[in-house]
Amino acid sequence: MERTKGKKRTGCFLYERGDYSSTERLFRRALVIDPSNTLVLGEYGSLLAANNPQRSIGMFAKALAIDPTNRSEGEKDQAEALLRRSLKCHPADAESLTNLAAFLACQRQEYDEARSLYEKAERVQPDHVPTLCDFACLLKDELHDMEEASELFERALQLAPSHVPSLRGFAELKIAQARDRRDVEDAKDLLKRALRSSPNDADTLACLGGVLRESDNSREVAGLMLDKAIKIQPDHVASLCHKASLLRALKLVPNHLEAMLGRANILAIPPAGLPNATVQNEYQEAAKIFDKDGKVSMHGMMDEVVKSRFQKSAKIFERALSLAPDYVPALCGYGKVLCQLDDREGSERVLRKALRIDPHDWRTLANYGVMLVRMLGDTLNGEKMLKDAVRHAPEHAKAELQALKSQVLQQGEEKLSDLHKTAERIRWENRWKDADSINAPYDGRKFS
């Protein structure tokens, strides 16, 4: 970021001196380092306005298309009009096609039109790295075509091995598809390459910090990386989420899905798994409400704390699902918290929907298996679900999941055994309720 600012200042100085060719060269170098820097795009657009007005429009339009906070619909319409005007003047320009496609994907969620524009840009200029990278990100994040996205990232990195957005995007794809430790290590290598090219890139620092956070040996390093990302960009939502500053992240971007799910998952943890200070604070708040007529029920207060947490969690999951109805992590978490609220039918309905979308999501399989055993006593299907969850889980989660499976099935067998004993007792009592009658058969238990 500092390198970009330095080149921008030098470019402005040369521009004032009238050295236009050197100015343009510096602005180009600045955009290679940080393609989304709106200051550089604006200054470069001003430089091009006299000699190349259409490219100038494209620069200004790209600056407008980048999503600042609280952009009005009028500004979005203006940005789209400028981008389409630029494309009309240069219909075979890969950069104009890419800029319009990025705007439509990010601002309008018109993914089909964006895809057709990216494909056209790729045909026009097959070696245009920003097109390949942006197209791959669209396929990865919105269209879920991981195979084609992987091919595009590989092509982009063959053309530009140090292109930071491609390195980061390819790493995110590998993490999303990780089936073993090798995929995670490949992702780490890609992110380290990106940091060598751009050491102060907050997105890359946050991504690598998030990966390292999952490893017991690297949590301290992960914390340092996330702290650095937040220091570079204090309002960087991904870093705040990884650092668990979820309330701050939600304040910055109220509809940020990852922050919402993180907050909801924390609320869904029973008090036994929370720090004592957290439980104590919520316990005291509940006491103020629950203490009526000077009578306090310890059990009732704790139930109130737990129920209140679960209800808050359910509301956040509902809000997340209103924004993304088919988002599997949100469905999985919502199904789990409904199970904790004893809404068996709602939980089963939500978890089934998640499995229809992604039949191999190991978290959903695990939650469904636990629900079947604990709420329905269905150990047969519950065990099958839990086995599938272990099979599809990444390596680092298999041991913990195997322990959960053993614990849940043992509890299920004990519960089933108790149910069988109760049923047997009721059957015998009903059969021999007239045991004192002279006509009743001998009951050894009665006279033992």
Automatic annotation (TrEMBL):
Gene3D superfamilies: Tetratricopeptide repeat domain (1.25.40.10). The keyword Repeat applies. PROSITE patterns: TPR (PS50005). It comes from Guillardia theta (strain CCMP2712). TPR repeats lie at residues 4-37. SMART domains: TPR. This is Uncharacterized protein. Keywords: Repeat, TPR repeat.
